[in-house]
Amino acid sequence: MKENIKIESLNIYFKTKAGNVKAVDNVSLELEKGKVIGLIGETGSGKSVLGLSILRLLAGNAVVSGSIIYKDIDILNLNKTNIVGIRGKEIALVPQNPGTALNPIIKVGKQIAEGIILHEKAKRKEAKTKTLAIIKRLMMDSSISKAYPFELSGGMKQRVLAAIGISSDPTWLIADEPTKGLDAIVRNQVYKTFNKIKKRKDTGILLITHDLILAEKLCDKIAVMYAGDILEFGLSKEVLENPKHPYTKGLVNSQPHMNLKPMKGLSPSLINLPKGCKFHPRCGYAMKKCFLEKPLLYKTPSGSKVRCFLFDKTRKYYKDI
Q: Which residues form the ABC transporter domain (predicted)?
């Protein structure tokens, strides 16, 4: 489908004085239109960098190679004028921090209407009417449109960002940590907001999150990232209830609603990554081969894909180290 987003062999690193920070390492992933794809993993795994790369919103020191195909066009090759035509209109972003994303001196309704005026060339009266309709659709009171951001709670600000994101009826919405820093009650409100958006079958969502409860409720499929790699990809229920990769198992078990059992060790430096499988220094199943070679993504009987030699049916067995 042309409106799928097809990421192929994507590499992203950032030039710094300390060295090159390898944030995304040869990632290939297809995002299906009308589906919610979750991107989960620890802080620093490359989730947000991957999401922002789709809209070409990376810092100036980023070096990007590979391709991101949308409607038969490689987004990475678009000039500034053409990429601006896609941002917000066809692929929209719900940023990570509503406290800094919203303009504190402009009323919420005007901020929602701004995208409608820009992308749809609507008159202010038309934009206001659509703004109130969006606010109602996302279960907010119409009086919100006359409020300033500082008058709203964290959860309400997040819902306003979602309203801005869908204001021009985009094909895709990239939501970056929409429940970060919110309590359980407010997280549930945000879930209801995104569930409303999900029910509009023509909108696909890339959900970048640490919140595995939200991911399980909302996502159709989930990709697990670690140190710039996709380690596991499959149906949401399968990945979170029957995880295959040792890292995914550790990530799930470390959650407060599960065993709250922390994984040993720390994520590696993205400047000095381990050779072979990047997870092997923390893995209880590491074999000699894991130290020497990077595993491919192997398909499991359940349909999930896992980057682990344990699922390589052709492998020769090595003595554990």
A: 7-252
